[in-house]
What does this fold into?
Amino acid sequence: MNPLISAASVIAAGMAVGLASIGPGVGQGTAAGQAVEGIARQPEAEGKIRVKNYVRGPLNNSKKPGARLRKVEMEADQYRVNGYSEIEREKLNLINSTYNTLEQLENYKNETIQFEQQRAINQVRQTGFATSLTRSSKNYQ
It folds into this structure.
């Protein structure tokens, strides 16, 4: 195949894909813009607007996933109701776990300090004992 034709076909394919993506891009941009306007008008409906915009938007033209979509929306609504309390429980569990871990680390730190202090005291004692032993042995000679 001629290299010029090959290069031209690659360029044409790229341009076709680029031009074909303009329509869906404009449509999704319009939908997202409308969703933002809806959220600005009714901030309390943000969750439903987002779910409908991001889940239903791409599936609008298809009738088969309708039942699945309704199920997902019901689960999302249920999660909104129950999810916040579950998230709060998880947050409290994480805080308690972190507090316990910090408490354990503090205990380990204190134990290490006590151990190092005792070791230093023992070293001083050994040095003193060795010095006095050396002196006493010199006195006997």
Remarks:
- The chain has four helices and no strands.
- The chain has a mean pLDDT of 76.
- The helical segments are 3-20, 22-41, 46-59, 66-140.
